[in-house]
């Protein structure tokens, strides 16, 4: 049974939990702040907040009614100035652990209602369909009705999506809905259903998607209904992403990253590489200044980039290449052809590619990451190879979470 204890919160952990000490061991208490005295149900290293006896002066009223249960946000109760300082501190700490000191630029925030992409979970609770996010540290689902972080267009369609997926839900199944607010409407892809729906059920799903005025509705990335092609504008290009494709969570953040990448170009730059390019979010920005090699291991993403390239005028040549950069990073010899290399890998980072860059003659590298720890590792490799860390910009496109996007510019 959990023990009820009164504890003092000493600091915030890297996941956004308050950390207290009990019997000489740390206890992680979500939704608390440094300096607070709280009553907690302690079970192992986790504590469930019961009440706050002495609140912090930095505590503010959360902006969402679901905060405290929904695991999507961890820090809505932290005032803006302290919250920004904490996010920047995550980056400084990760860099410091690798022996890197850097002056960070001010945190770029995307603002409420700007998240255009969400992965929602749906399940049955008796006759009720729940749709939302899991509770923090739990498999329980919070059936969300509002979400100040998501684009309003996504929030508005939640009631309709509950009914849309009802025929796909078994008693024990749990669906995943990838929802994208494209420029011209919503794109929804559903996965995790137990069995392929019958032709009659598919017709019913298509009719429901039409009534919701979705631009595209897919089952396991296979389009079932389309009223048109979902379009995402990236600089001068209009990209039609494949169902469930990765995109930056916020268009504002995407533009901020692209702006800093283009600003890093040297005056005589002619060749650039966009590694882990996806659908080309940064390829088109780079192509306004130089010829670009865009490399990724997702064939569907590269096909979307190619199609957008054919429709776009006013950019220099973009060459796409299908290649798994984890298994086969660009070699030093291949890299030496480029005046600038941008890489934006998954959270695991790009250790092997960073090692090749460290051996190369590339004048400028732009490293983009949503994981400060693996970014710091990769930066350390390149700094040891002769690069100087010139600029570090934190971008808060994952509002109220412990995640933070970082753009780092290195120059030989």
Features:
412 residues; alpha/beta; Rossmann fold; OB fold (Dihydrolipoamide Acetyltransferase, E2P); 3 domains; 23 strands; 25% helix
Polypeptide structure, described:
This protein is of the alpha/beta class and 412 residues long. The chain has three domains: 3-59, Nucleic acid-binding proteins (OB fold (Dihydrolipoamide Acetyltransferase, E2P), Beta Barrel), CATH 2.40.50; 84-111 and 247-411, Vaccinia Virus protein VP39 (Rossmann fold, 3-Layer(aba) Sandwich), CATH 3.40.50; 117-226, OB fold (Dihydrolipoamide Acetyltransferase, E2P) (Beta Barrel). It has helices at 80-97, 152-156, 158-165, 199-211, 251-263, 283-287, 299-311, 332-335, 351-359, 372-384; strands at 3-8, 11-12, 18-22, 25-29, 37-43, 46-54, 108-109, 117-125, 128-134, 141-143, 175-182, 185-191, 216-219, 222-226, 232-234, 237-239, 271-275, 291-296, 318-322, 340-343, 364-369, 388-396, 405-411. The strands form five sheets. It has an eight-stranded mixed sheet, with helices on both faces. The protein has a seven-stranded mixed sheet with strand order 10-9-8-11-12-13-14. A hairpin with an 8-residue loop joins strand 22 (388-396) and strand 23. Helix 1 crosses helix 10 (372-384) and helix 9 (351-359) runs parallel beside helix 10 (372-384). The longest helix is centred in the N-terminal third of the chain and has 18 residues, at 80-97.
């Amino acid at each position: 049974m959990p023990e009820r204890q009164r504890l003092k919160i000493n600091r915030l952990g890297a996941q956004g939990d308050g950390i207290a000490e009990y019997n000489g061991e740390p206890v992680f208490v979500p939704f608390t702040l440094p300096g607070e005295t709280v009553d907690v149900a302690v079970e192992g290293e986790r504590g469930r907040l019961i009440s706050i006896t002495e609140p912090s002066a930095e505590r503010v009223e959360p902006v969402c009614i679901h905060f405290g249960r929904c695991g999507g946000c961890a820090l809505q109760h932290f005032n803006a100035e302290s919250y920004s300082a904490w996010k920047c501190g995550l980056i400084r700490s990760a860099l410091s652990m690798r022996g890197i000191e850097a002056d960070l630029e001010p945190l770029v925030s995307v603002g409420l209602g700007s998240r255009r992409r969400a992965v929602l979970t749906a399940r049955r609770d008796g006759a009720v369909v729940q749709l939302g996010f899991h509770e923090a540290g739990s498999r329980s689902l919070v059936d969300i009705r509002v979400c100040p972080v998501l684009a309003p267009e996504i929030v508005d369609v939640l009631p309709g999506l509950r009914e849309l997926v009802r025929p796909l839900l078994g008693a024990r199944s749990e669906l995943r809905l990838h929802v994208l607010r494209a420029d011209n409407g919503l794109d929804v892809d559903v996965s995790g259903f137990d069995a392929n729906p019958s032709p009659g059920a598919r017709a019913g799903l298509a009719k429901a998607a039409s009534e919701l005025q979705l631009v595209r509705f897919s089952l396991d990335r296979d389009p079932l209904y389309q009223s048109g092609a979902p379009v995402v504008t990236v600089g001068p290009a209009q990209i039609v992403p494949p169902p469930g494709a990765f995109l930056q969570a916020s268009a504002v953040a995407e533009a901020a990253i692209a702006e800093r990448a283009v600003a890093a170009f040297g005056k005589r730059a002619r060749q650039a590489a966009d590694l882990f390019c996806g659908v080309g979010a940064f390829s088109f920005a780079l192509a306004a200044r130089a010829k670009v090699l865009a490399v990724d291991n997702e064939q569907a993403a590269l096909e979307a980039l190619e199609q957008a390239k054919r429709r776009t005028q006013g950019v220099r040549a973009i060459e796409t290449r299908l290649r798994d950069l984890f298994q086969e990073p660009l070699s030093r010899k291949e890299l030496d052809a480029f005046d600038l290399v941008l890489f934006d890998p998954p959270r695991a980072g790009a250790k092997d590619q960073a090692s090749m860059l460290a051996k190369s003659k590339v004048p400028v590298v732009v490293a983009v990451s949503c994981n400060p720890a693996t970014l710091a590792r990769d930066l350390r490799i390149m700094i040891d190879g002769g690069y100087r860390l010139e600029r570090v910009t934190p971008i808060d496109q994952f509002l109220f979470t412990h995640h933070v996007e970082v753009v780092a510019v290195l120059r030989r």
